[in-house]
Amino acid sequence: MAVSHVSEDEKALIEAIREIAQERVAPRAAEIDHSGEFPWDMKELLASHDILAMPFPEEYGGIGASELAISMAVEELSRCCATTGLILAVQQLGSMPILLAGNDEQKRKYFPQLASGEWLAAFGLTEAGSGSDAAAMQTFAVRKGDKYTLNGSKRFITNGGLAQVNTIFAITDPQAGTRGISAFIVEKDFPGFSVGRIEDKMGIKGSQTAELIFENCEVPVENLLGGEGEGFKIAMRTLDRTRIGIGAQALGIAQGALDLAVAYAKQRVQFKKPIAENQGIQFMLADMATKVEAARLLVYHASELVDDGDEQFSKYSSMAKMFASDAAMDVTNDAIQVLGGYGYMKEYPAERMLRDAKITQIYEGTNQIQRLVIARALLSERNS
Ligand code: CAA
Predict the structure, then answer these.
(1) Distance (Å, rounded) from C-alpha 97 to C-alpha 181?
(2) Which ligand 1 atom lies nearest to the CA of residue 232?
(3) Partner of 99 at 20 to 30 A CA spacing, among 35, 133, 281, 343?
(4) Do 137 and 191 reside in the same domain of the chain?
(5) Is residue 322 part of a domain?
(6) Is residue 3 part of a domain?
(7) Given this model, what pLDDT does residue 3 score?
(8) Does ipTM surpass 0.90 in this model?
(9) How far is the CA of 234 from the centre of ligand 1 (A)?
(10) How far is CA 299 from CA 1, 43, 152, 200, 320, in A?
(11) Which top EC class is given (predicted)?
(12) Cα angle vertex 129, ends 314, 193, to 5°?
């Protein structure tokens, strides 16, 4: 499709990312899935091509890419390896609270190393008892002099334990509900910060998902983001932006599964002809391609709304994430069906794609939460 919002430079970058993904990332994908280890080589690859610099403004060492270009980059990487696509998506997620609410000093301190890829970022909102109900958190921060002391834990944190820079949400005023939550930048080596359980997951296996523990963790007051009590809104505004990235990841997975199914159907011969000559297979491929294209339109549209500064983008961000992740589940499932017995085997990537796709319906807000966000926006619009 035409992507009018992407500059000539960004078009060249996306083209380069597509090549890198196909030549360097795709051959590593099965191994990353099998080993379950964070692919440091892929992180280095993205860093060396300035791909991790995309979400950061030029004045802080980034390349200030458009939202659309970032989405297309996540898509191209995830088409080959969803774990590698997530490295870029989470670099943006973990840094977004600083981008939205950080002051100049905080951006100067943290963005250059995040943009160069020397440091990874993580976003710490979820807790064992606080998933969809993000406001139900039980991590507390108490100010004493020039420090906050954090106590509590965060669960299911992508890049947990690997990230140097963690944006963490904690209660500073227990009486004030969502207005009593504040956001902090917590460095990995701050005293009282440690890493707990590392999760064993169904998919995106190379991405590390960990528990973060705060035991009298000392955070300097200058690491408060925005003002006290602004944390919940910072978290919500962050997710409004970054859910598009999960939509892009899902879109990439779906496109990868479609590519595989089309190629297989053309070469697999049964009853003396390629199975692609059967209408039963053709109809499946047509449905898969239509879902991929519809997901792409929503992901790109939501990205363009961000780039245009359109305030309606939150609703479209949730729509893009919800639709693309559902499409990814359908398309990867159908890809396995087209490949038949081979699709079920680990020898082919279809089953990995389905396992990777599943998380996109869950993280950064389940698709049920996305429906809630969409419905709330719809019902509060004027003229509705
Ligand atoms: N932007 C700005 N402010 C917002 C907002 C938004 N998008 N959404 C809500 N707010 C404000 C409200 O206006 C309200 O402000 P006031 O106090 O001024 O009235 C305040 O925040 C509280 O809002 P709600 O009453 O709507 O809050 P709620 O408790 O009903 O929760 C929710 C809303 C949408 C369900 C929210 O809890 C939510 O998004 N839950 C899902 C959490 C989630 O997505 N977690 C993902 C974790 S990260 C992850 O998964 C990353 C990974 O692994 C890669």
Answers:
(1) 14
(2) 21
(3) 133
(4) yes
(5) yes
(6) no
(7) 59
(8) yes
(9) 9
(10) 12, 24, 35, 29, 5
(11) oxidoreductase
(12) 90
